[in-house]
Task: inverse folding
């Protein structure tokens, strides 16, 4: 028997790299899963493809209301909300346009706010039975320490961290736990884009050399997979984590446990 | 079962949080040994091995790990607390707290690392008190900050062969918590006030910490290392200054 049997889950960014792995894991653990995203992109046979698709632009309140209305009509409650939708602009603040800045906050911060706000009534319903409901936001290790050329992204993730603690304080007494996962380097389309982007500081290195250099700087000598993240999302979503709330859970292969690595 | 085929040593597992971890590991299929200073632990769960050892003594820690042999999981849970400020603390307090909480963790890690199998996991019990000071717990607070620093060092030095993380429990229903409330002028009112400061509106149970320990010990946590994992019912996410409780 799966660990999420009988639970209803909604994953924003559910067709993205990490979102798909979370949906697949939730399905395997017995939950009813909605994958919410801008488009149904990609193969439905791939991991997470079996989840019910919900069209959702997280920056739009009308779409958040409509998406949660469908969950209400079909299940009457929501046990798990994962706010995984996110974008990354690879620029310094000087290069970042106001539009890019606003779009970063709209998806990463406002999206977390809007989806959570309209999910709360359904999550209180889920918590009525005595087991807690669980919101899992996506922060980042970049919310603690900066990667170069990622200014707006770093700022949005810091905002998500503070929002996570605030939501945990406000809604804990209603039986809703709120945590954030702070991934380090995870093998996703977003990371591949970072490797090939101008902000990566590749300095003439090939992508392969850059990838190896990134692996070498990790104490675990590898970067993570979406499944590594799904493993922790699954734990935080489950009743085993019933005392875990208001925390930022760094999962980065030990990267941020080190001081800056000098090349000597 | 998530720990089948794995051998685990949990120090100080006779009672409290350690006992919760021992029970959870056994349920998940691990072979479990625990230790303590008593000759006879009395009433350990069925199947749990016992070695008499004071981990603050390097020779006894070595003998303990000799007795355990090759292992996959080490949980450094054994610890003591003394409720005193720096000005009140005696040399004996220092030896007791630093001996068990710092030297004991170091002794066990040093003895265990060469004996650990590839993919092994060390889980240290740190504390929220290592990040935020509890009043009149000076040596305890400092000893847990030591544990947090050592945790990062082991992760950096001994990865990728071994992962090392710390769990930072908040206020967990154990004898240690009772001892803390005994310091209050009105222990009953202090308890009610403390619960109101927890977003989840209760204290933790040893099983809450054991649930995190199982996850960190399992292969699911293969990318988790060098981190402090706080499980405190949301207490430290909230500001300690709470006007609603004035």
Result:
């Amino acid at each position: 028997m799966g660990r999420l049997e009988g639970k209803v889950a909604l994953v924003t960014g559910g067709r993205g790299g990490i979102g798909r792995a979370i949906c697949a894991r939730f399905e395997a653990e017995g939950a009813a899963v909605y994958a919410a995203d801008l488009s149904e992109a990609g193969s439905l046979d791939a991991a997470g493809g079996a989840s019910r698709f919900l069209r959702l632009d997280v920056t739009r309140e009308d779409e958040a209301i409509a998406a949660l209305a469908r969950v209400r009509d079909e299940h009457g409650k929501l046990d798990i909300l994962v706010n995984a939708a996110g974008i990354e602009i690879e620029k310094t603040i000087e290069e970042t346009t106001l539009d890019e800045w606003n779009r970063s906050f709209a998806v990463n911060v406002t999206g977390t706010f809007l989806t959570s706000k309209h999910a709360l009534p359904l999550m209180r319903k889920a918590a009525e039975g005595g087991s807690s409901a669980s919101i899992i936001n996506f922060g980042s290790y970049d919310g603690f320490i900066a990667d170069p050329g990622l200014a707006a992204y770093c700022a949005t993730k810091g905002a998500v961290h503070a929002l996570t603690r605030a939501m945990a304080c406000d809604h804990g007494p209603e039986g809703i736990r709120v945590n954030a996962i702070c991934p380090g380097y995870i093998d996703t389309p977003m990371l591949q884009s970072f490797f090939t982007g101008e902000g990566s500081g590749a300095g003439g290195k090939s992508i392969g050399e850059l990838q190896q250099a990134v692996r070498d700087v990790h104490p675990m000598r590898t970067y993570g997979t979406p499944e590594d993240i799904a493993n922790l999302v699954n734990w935080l979503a489950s009743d085993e984590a019933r005392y875990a709330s208001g925390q930022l859970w760094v999962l980065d292969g030990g990267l941020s446990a080190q001081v800056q690595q000098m090349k000597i | 079962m998530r720990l089948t085929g794995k051998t685990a040593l949990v120090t100080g597992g006779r009672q409290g949080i350690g006992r919760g971890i021992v029970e959870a590991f056994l349920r998940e299929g691990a072979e479990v040994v625990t230790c303590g200073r008593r000759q006879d632990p009395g009433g350990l769960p069925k199947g749990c091995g016992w070695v008499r050892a004071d981990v603050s003594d390097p020779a006894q820690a070595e003998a303990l790990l000799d007795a355990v042999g090759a292992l996959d999981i080490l949980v450094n849970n054994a610890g003591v607390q003394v409720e005193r400020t720096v000005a009140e603390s005696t040399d004996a307090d220092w030896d007791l707290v630093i001996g068990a909480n710092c030297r004991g963790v170091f002794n066990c890690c040093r003895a265990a690392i060469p004996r650990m199998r590839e993919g092994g996991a060390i889980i240290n019990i740190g504390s929220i008190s290592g990040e935020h000071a509890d009043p009149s717990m000076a040596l305890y607070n400092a000893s847990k900050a030591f544990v947090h620093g050592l945790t990062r060092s082991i992760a950096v030095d001994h990865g990728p062969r071994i992962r090392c993380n710390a769990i930072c429990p908040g206020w967990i229903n154990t004898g240690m918590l009772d001892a803390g409330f005994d310091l209050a002028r009105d222990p009953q009112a202090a308890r009610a006030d403390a619960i109101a400061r927890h977003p989840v509106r209760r204290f933790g149970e040893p099983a809450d910490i054991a649930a995190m320990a199982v996850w960190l010990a399992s292969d699911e946590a293969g990318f988790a290392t060098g981190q402090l994992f706080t499980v405190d019912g949301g207490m430290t996410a909230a500001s300690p200054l709470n006007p609603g409780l004035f």
The longest helix of chain A spans residues 98-127. The helical segments of chain A are 17-28, 61-75, 98-127, 151-171, 189-196, 207-216, 226-237. Chain A touches chain B through 39 residues (CB under 8 Å). The mean pLDDT of chain A is 92.
